[in-house]
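Lab manual, section 2.4: Encoding a predicted structure.

Procedure: take the sequence of the chain (207 residues), apply the prediction step described in section 2.3, and record the output as structure tokens. A sample record is shown.
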Amino acid sequence: MDRITTSDGSTTLYSEEYQEYYHTKSGALEESFKKFVEPCNLKPGSSVLDIGFGLGYNTLAAINSLKNAKIVALEKDSDVLKEIQRLNVPEGLKQDFEKVKQAANNLGYKDKDIEIQIVLGDAVETIRKINQKFDAVFLDPFSPPKNPELWTADFLKNVKTLMKKDATLATYSCARRVRENLKSSGFLVKDGPTIGRRGPSTLAVNI
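Recorded output:
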């Protein structure tokens, strides 16, 4: 896979299937912390559904910020999990990224503080196999034009059923259709942080 260094020094890859990079060029790791983890206001011990595990940066940001977390991640592409083993991150994140690498290699990782489970397959199907409630959802597939099946009202309704009351869904997209589908699925929708893109990200609360 083609790779580039983003503006914050972290690496992202290019998907030939979707014809897009996995992250914004302004900062792959920055986006994970600022657009996904921080806006969800998670507490230690929180459970997170990470839709579009990709290079594992959102899960990395979650376990680094919380130090005690349970993550269930959905990922379609087994090849990208292999690419994770070749990536480097800043020194302060390396210990946690080793946990992400082990999870990518074994489809899971567990110690006394952290639990990561990766569910491999098409998220439209695998979302129906999840049987637990989450404190937050990171919705991070490829863009709506490239990966439309993970932005539909039907898919978002399935996501909502897995969220605790007042849980927050965070996503980078502010596309009008995405927000309309979130609203029609019963979410309270509001602006998230504006970092590295022209428009704000989106937060959707399960009211």
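Check your result against the sample. Residues 94-106 form the longest helix (13 residues).
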